[in-house]
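Pipeline run #58 for the internal structure catalog. This entry was flagged by the ingest filter as a single-chain record with no existing model, so it goes straight to prediction. Upstream metadata was stripped on purpose; only the residue string is passed forward. Reviewer on rotation: M.T. Logging verbosity set to normal.
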Amino acid sequence: MAEKKKLSKKTLAKSFRNWSYGNLTCFSQEHMQTFGYLCAMLPIVEELYDTPEEQKQALQTYSAFFNTEPQIGTMIVGVTAGLEEARANGEAIDDDAINGIRAGLMGPLAGLGDSLIVGTLIPILLGIALGLSTGGSPLGAIFYIVVWNLLMFLGMRFAYNQGYELGGKAVEALVGPKAKALRDSIVMVGTMVIGAVGATWVSITCSPNLVLPGGGKFQDTLDGIYPHLLPMVFIIFCWYMMTKKKVNPIVMMLILVVIAFVGVIIGFFDPALSY
C-alpha cells in the first residue's frame, strides 16, 4: 500500500506566503487574482506530484478565473490545498469538484470580506489612527501600519490553516446561517465607532451671528436640542449620496464645497471659523 501523502509545514507556509504577498500577481481585468492563486497552489502541487506531467495537469485546475477578497478569501486557498492533498491520495475529487467549491466560495467570501475588512475594520483602525494623529503626531500612522499588518498576517494565517484542516466546515462558520448574528454584531460595533469618530472629528457649526427672533444664538439652540446635529446631518447626507445614489467621492467633495460656499454667502456659515 502506497504511503499517504501529507503536505509539510514548510510547503503550507510557502503557499500561504505566496498568497499573502502575491495575491494580486499579474492582476488584470481579465484574470483578476487567477495568477496569484496559481502561485499559491504551485508549492502544493510540486510536493504532491512527482512528474512534470502530473504537476501540469494538476495546475490546469487552478487556471480558471478567480477573484475574491484577499484576506477572508485566504480560506479558499487553504480549503483547496486540503482538497488537492486528498486528490493526490486517491480520493474521488476531480477538477469540477474543486472548481465548483472554489467558485461557490469566492463570491460569498468576497462580500463578507468587503463588509468586514474594507467596510468595518479599516474604517475603525483609520478612525483610531486619526485620533492618535492630533497635532501632527506620527503615532497614528505607526499605529495603523503595525496593527493592520499584524492583524492581517495573523488573520490570514488563521483562515488558511482552518481552511486546510477543516475544509468546507471552516467556511460554514463564516457564511452559514449561524454566523449572521456575529456579522451583524461586528457591523453594529463598526457603525458605533464611525459615529463616535464623526462626532469627535467632524466640526460643523453655523455662524455665531446667526440668531433667532427671540435673541438666542441658533447654534446654541441646535446644541440644546441635539449636540453635534449638523455634523450628523452632513455625515448621513454624504453616506446617502455615496451609497444610495452612487455619487463619486470626488463629486461628493465638490458638492460639499458648493454647500459651504453658498452657506457663507447667505450667512449660515462664518468664513472666519476654522472647520
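catalog note: Residues 9-178 form one domain.
catalog note: The radius of gyration is 26 Å.
status: ready for reviewer M.T.
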